[in-house]
Design brief:
By secondary structure, the protein is mainly beta. The protein has no helices and ten strands. A hairpin with a 4-residue loop joins strand 7 and strand 8. It is globular and about 40 Å long.
């Protein structure tokens, strides 16, 4: 079974950027569609972005379209989320998983955007 570990979160000012990473271990994830999800304080978990096993197939939530970029390197079993022009509303714990979700959720990585 694939295990996913998120990293790269932190505290950033509004308008800044962060790059999240998701490292996979276990079975190679080359054929899996992968996604990023987030959960803001007091809210449910929501979809952020997804990428097919072919990197050209990407999908974004309307709220992040044009600001976030999802990418993957199948040789390194790694998934990234480049987040630019961050806003206070992007504050959340970010998780990676397959898309659609099939794996247990990991610990996630906290992203906090300050004014």
């Amino acid at each position: 079974q694939v295990q996913l570990v998120e990293s790269g979160g932190g505290l950033v000012q509004a308008g800044g950027s962060l790059r999240l990473s998701c490292a996979a271990s276990g079975r190679p994830f080359i054929t899996l569609a992968l996604g990023w999800f987030r959960q803001a304080p007091g809210k449910g978990r929501e979809f952020v972005a997804a990428v097919g096993w072919v990197e050209s197939n990407t999908y974004y939530a309307d709220s992040v379209e044009g600001r976030f970029t999802i990418s993957r390197d199948n040789r390194k079993n790694t998934l990234w989320l480049q987040m630019d022009s961050l806003t206070l509303e992007d504050t959340a714990v970010y998780y990676c998983n397959t898309a659609p979700v099939t794996l247990p959720w990991g610990q996630g990585t906290q992203v906090t955007v300050s004014s």
